[in-house]
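Dear U.,

For the methods section draft, I wanted the exact inputs and outputs in one place so we can describe them consistently. I've listed the two proteins in the order they'll appear in the manuscript figures. Please don't edit the token lines directly; just add comments below if something needs changing.

First protein:
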Amino acid sequence: MTHIIAFANQKGGVGKTTSAVNIAASVASLGHETLLLDCDPQGNTTSGVGINKKSIRNSMYELILEECSFEDAVIQTEFEHLSIVPSTISLAGAEFELISEDNREFVLKKVTDMLRTLDKYEYIFIDCPPSLGILTLNALTSCDGVIIPMQCEYYSLEGLSQLMITIRKVKQKYNRELNIVGILITMYNARLNLTAQVMNELKKYYADKIFKTAVVRNVKLSEAPSFGKPCLYHDKYSKGTAAYMEIAKELIERVE
């Protein structure tokens, strides 16, 4: 069975791409065939798994606009059981090109439905852009569930409320199967009073959705993208690696 999970948060800088890359790598390292779909025009997920964007011939842009086949777009990374459909800045143009398309909310779903029939990947992770635009809407329409990475800040709480409203609307209108897999706390600092206050607010409303493991601020996590590697392959003994491995295991328990 294929599990399709999107990483979404319209607020930037919350560790969304870091979480997508490291959870995907951790799940893959546990022996599950895993695919990353980089739906962010910034392409940070792509470079985060060691793909040189200058060498890309086909990307998510060509794939969703049906200008290439999946086989021509997918790249096997150097990491065990982990593949990616990369992104380039050209994907930003898709936001405008899809506006006039009929059923523009389901363009990505054509791709994910095809991938389900292939039955090759156990886990497909979609990294969304930091916005609630057409690309994020497509991801939410296409996936089984969403992981929401967020920091313990009040602006993040406000953004979470807006995202929850969007998810409910997408569930009602486009994707009855959509659910929240979990809320993932990133850049966690237990020494701050603000962290405790925000965590208390979260637990009031979403206690059953919060992942048990929070990701603390970690130098190795910050370094890993500059080496084009998930943290697991940059420093397998770091706190960041350990945290994302625990989160990956909990994720598998939640969806299977």
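Second protein (the one for the lower panel):
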Amino acid sequence: MSTNYRDVLYSNYHSTQSGRASLTDSKSLFEREKWRFQMELLPLLNSVSKSARIFDMGCGSGSLLSVLGDAGFENAFGMDLSQEQVDLAHKMGVNQVQMGNALDFIKNSNEQFDVITGTDIIEHFTKDELVELLQTIQSKLKSGGKAIFRTPNLDAPFASIFANGDFTHENYLNASSAQQVHLACGFKKVMVYPSQMKIQNPFKEILRKLIAAPVFLSYKLVIFASGRSTQNVYFSPNMIIVAEN
């Protein structure tokens, strides 16, 4: 009898991966995720109406949906494959989360969306699956709509810590390949940004900044010495992709 690894790993994804890796309790992890989403993703929605229809695919514990609700977005909902994650979202008071396959839902939906988000999700698809996913999302977005993704950045130093830190990851992108695949799948404009690297502890954040400047300069010098350009190269562990119709 063959076993699908996704059936095994996604059924208890929080306890075996996202919650385990956080080294903290569920509530603290939820609040820390909200803090980061408020910096990384919320500013990207400044021009979006508060009544916009927003679908958060692979929404996990619903921390992004909680941020959207706090910001006044009244028509956002999400879906996740893991019943454990859905139960956690409901426990955190995010009731607009339902159990299900987000890709199947989008494919079968007659609805058009203003925004579709996916944080730490597109790396879980094979290349063929990702192309199908992006083409489907592009077809389900309204004119002027946008897809926003966060995914590991393969150009980051020690990228394997994040790229290979989850057994369910299937593909890896950098800024260039992210733009390539989104444009090929029909999006008209694709922008890539480095993710936030800020640490909540103010003293650790000061130390991080002091270390980051010379370290990142050294990486740029290595790239320059190899005869390549540092344009469109980011060193943050994750990157943010904004693809517009």
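Candidate sentences for the figure legend, describing the second protein: The CA atoms of residues 19 and 26 lie 7 Å apart. The first helix runs from residue 5 to 11.

Thanks,
Y.
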